[in-house]
Amino acid sequence: MTLTTYRDLEQGTDEWLQLRNGIITASEMNLILTPTLKPANNDKTRAHVWEIAAQRINGYTEPSFIGDNGHRGHADEFIARQLYSERVEPVEEIGFYVRDFGGFKIGYSPDGSAIISNGGIECKSRKMKFQTEVIVKNEVPTEHMLQVQTGLLVTGWDWMDYVSFCGGMPMWVIRVEPDPIYQAAIIEAASCFEAKVTEQIAAYTDRLAGVELIETERLVNREFDDGNYE
Q1: Going from the N-terminus, what domains does the chain have, and what CATH number goes with each?
Q2: Closest Cα partner for 26 from 138, 201, 187, 212?
Q3: Fewest CB within a 10 Å sphere: which of 83, 124, 136, 154?
Q4: Which regions of 7-128 does DSSP assign to beta strands (E)?
Q5: 149-168: per-residue pLDDT in tens?
């Protein structure tokens, strides 16, 4: 299981998007694995199979629309990482990790990697109601635990601190360690997902065989709005 670290890569750049192209990533693990740790098989899973297959076929990742919540999240992530470095433990930005499991790869973009010890952070910008719930329950939300455990699996870290941030409320830090049950389920689901992607790429190749194709040119400077061309 080979790990490749892209330390100086800036997240969000064209180079970062190209490295993520066509591979399973921690942020999308909830599309292929259910909260009960079973391989997912629903409309979102099937749509993601087509998305990853299309990325591999074309070697290209389509731009996605970033709304107000996304912009707020980026700003909150920066503040949370700075506060964590000052008050808990120094962390640095790392662009991307990719672990090759033999039959498939999984990528992870951390929000910070600890400088002194073998760990890191995953920051989440939260609305007040969700921040209140996290503080009271002192638990990582189910919808984020898959991402955290996948990040631990990819990086090989000993721990990850889940950093929940809502401006005006206390920042809340929950330490998470690798869970072998979660990680075995992640590997199983990723293997099943990879088989589905490979099957559709083969079907695409077969469909084009012997057909006179009408080639087109990609216009990469179009403006996007919620994924639709304008």
Answers
A1: 2-204 (3.90.320.10)
A2: 187
A3: 136
A4: 24-25, 91-92, 96-100, 105-108, 112-114, 119-125
A5: 999 999 999 999 999 999 99
